[in-house]
UniProtKB/TrEMBL annotation:
PANTHER family: ACETYLTRANSFERASE C18B11.09C-RELATED, SIALIC ACID SYNTHASE-RELATED. CDD domains: LbH_MAT_like (cd04647). InterPro entries: Hexapep (IPR001451), Hexapeptide_acetyltransf (IPR051159), Trimer_LpxA-like_sf (IPR011004). This is Acyltransferase. One of its GO terms (molecular function) is acyltransferase activity. Keywords: Acyltransferase, Transferase. It comes from the Bacteria. It holds the Pfam family Hexapep.
Amino acid sequence: MKRHIKNLISVIFSFLKFSIIKLFHGKCFRFHLIERFSPNTELDIGKNSLLVLKEAVRAHSGSKFRVRNGAKLTIGKNTTFGYKCMITCRHEISIGEGTDFGPNVLIYDHDHDFKATGGLTAGKYKYGSVQIGNEVWVGANVIILKGTKIGNNCVIAAGSIISGTFPDNTIIIQKRETEVIKYRKE
């Protein structure tokens, strides 16, 4: 019973918070009545951008959703974000339905263009849309980079850094080897 009351309070709080955000951002922000976002989840919506939350999206404590000027972020229904996930969208990110993200997942659809005149301080970026299919399971501490396309029903192992195209029903793991390069005391 206590859990149901807590969930109801979370839904009501999210609705109130999103209604206030909607007042300031109008057509740039769309959401459904039933969303469950932790009170300290951050939404940052830039000018001429679009953030679309389909029904029953859930975000745990510390998550951040940043949709920069002119960008589009769409999150499908029944999608869940673990603790401290962060999405920074400068171009376009699309997440399908029923996708689960473990804690500390990072998603970026851009890279800094360090070759631009003025270097990093010039604030130039290279873009590539990110598409994540339906029913994808993303493990803890995964980083998804620009230009990535992940098919439906995929699993991504914890700690992976993902870039590229992955077809439906793929299990993705990034193998790493641990190597001792030197001992402190001989």
